[in-house]
Amino acid sequence: MASFVVLAAGVFGMVAVAYANTPVPEDTQDTVDDRGSIIYYGDGKTVLARLGVKRTPVTIDKIPKHVQDAVIAAENRSFREDGGVDFSGMARSVWSTVSGAQVQGASTITQQYVRNYYKGITKEVSIQRKIKEIFVAVKVSRTLDKDEILTRYLNTIYFGQGAYGIQAAAKTFFGKDVWKLSVPEAAYLAGRIQNPSRFDALEGDKDFAATKERYGYVLGGMALIDPGAYDKYKATPFEKLKFTEIKVSETNEGLRGYMLNIVFRELKKYGITEAALKTDGLRVVTTFDKKMMETAKKVVNARTAGLDPTIHATVATVDPKNGRVLAFYSGDDFIEDFNNRAFDATKQAASAFKPYVLAAWLEAGNSLESYVDGKSPIKMPGTTEIRNAGNQSFGAINMVKAMASSVNTAFVQMGDVVGLEEVARIAKEAGVGEQAKGNPSYGGKNGVDYAVDEQKYQVTIGSASVTAVEQAAGYSIFANEGRHVPWHTVKEVRKVGEGVFIEEQRPQRQVISPESAADATYAMQAVVKSGTGGAANLGSRPVAGKTGTNNGYKDAWFVGYTPQLVTAVGMSKDVPYTMDGKRKLKVDKYGLPNRKIKSVLWKEEEMPSFIGGGGTPTQIWHDYMAAVTAKYEIEQFPPKAGVGSPKNLATPKPTPKPKPTDPFGNDGGDFDWPPDGNGNDNGNGNEWDTPEGRECVPWDGSCDAQGNDVGNGQQDDGFGTAPGAAVMPSPTPSGRRP
Length: 738
Prior knowledge:
- By secondary structure, this protein is an alpha+beta fold.
- Helix content is 35%, strand content 12%.
- One of its GO terms (cellular component) is outer membrane-bounded periplasmic space.
């Protein structure tokens, strides 16, 4: 017995010493007044959005007694009498774990306040932390009166839906000030304190069972605390509560909503939910350039003014060196038009896919000086007959001319030589076709794989479905010496007081050799200098790229780049019909039908012919890139590498011999020898030079008064729309109907 007394005295003495040596922290937590998150533009300084509701502190005289009692009934019924710790409550908590009964938590209001208010008291699950919390709570209860503790607690605690503090909660859920809350409303809010994020998720799915149970528990507790005041409310139906409508936050208004939408999706891959962003005090730095975003919108609106609202343009710009999405355009207002097309709209790449075919050709050891027969039409195994624009035949042409003039049959033959699987490998390693996996029409396949399996050689002229951001990131292999960095929109994530815990991911893959990239770029410069993409010319700033238009002008592209930026511009016309496909639906200025219509059948339809790849998309690209590249120094592409050896699939015409030197010595040199009808250049390396005085080149159809190809970008790639494109749903990033 004596030994037990000695042992007890020793334990008591140690506890007393520990208690005496545990001070009440002097510093409050950094986030005590704001646990919301901030999303920044790429500079890490300019705020893109603030998420979460800031607390609006109120004094105890503004908090009605029934609101105070509701919280006490929900969280700590002995609050007014206890010394900051409720040991019987701890015992009840253990019992609830065993029995499943719903009772108060083990922590008193004072303990919760201490945990959320002061620095140095973490939320880790450990005996040491709990003991420290208890000691501080006891000391706080002796230095602060109960009203002060309750006031601080109610201004600090989280209620859900981004609302911190009782005033913010009253505004968020009921649209009124805390002093106007009814007893049932106070009971509902008090019940939420237990697990606000869980209740948010359940109520978001229209599941109110847990909320109702907690509401009833709080009303019952209030009746126990003060029967005379609250007995009459015990049976108040939950259904009588009138909540304010929680609308889509104005945070999503305009361009901001599109940026947040894709950032939220990327953060989710790291395990960070939108709910966490509202509660965890995160600081997220995105990749976006605010001015570039605004410029994209301005240019698209200027170039598409007056067009049918069902015609949409998408833009995506990627830094080829690091995969950062610097800017994009999916629409003007995410709240009204929530289709994030730059990331979600899968459209046929058309001739803008041909650079991947050329890359495979060069990687196989074949050079740009190889010749192929540009005959039309051509029939390949497993593929319908493929023709050039206007069914024009070109004769023997080299790879540069094939690219500049977008000769379909040339690329079909190139694909046959290197193998469609190799073409697909390069395109997929460049990140192309991944979004199509989410479209049921493709059976879970990458868009390029689907095109190879189902459409065979048509993949070489662009039957694969891609998105604007995939194309921008894909062409990065040409601008970045053959290397691909996956596109992304998040640079880093920090937590207040804890530093960076998510760093930018920039893995690199060498998809093609630097030499192949240089030669492909050389060929694509021809597209801009004299081919189908002439409207993209930026003067002294070098530009390479490729146009693309499929049958009937349903999809039109220009994907181009400078040494510093890659930008893809795509256009399409998506028209809503009734589900039987017989009647077009009336649309608003965003090209969308009445939001009350639950089921819509979407069809791709022809755009006006001037919107072909070399037309409006290229003009948008030019205007936008002229503006956003102004801050960059003019850099040159790597010189032509001349990789590989000629592999002729056709016999080239002999190069004309130079005329003899002028015997009279008028200029001391050779006479100029104009190019022949096929555009041969007498060996000076400028394969795309046109005959003097001509405004167009004879092999590309731009001389045709009807403008069947280059002049207006009206090329016909010889295939139809993507699988399901005529009867497919428009992409909806958040699961909502377009």
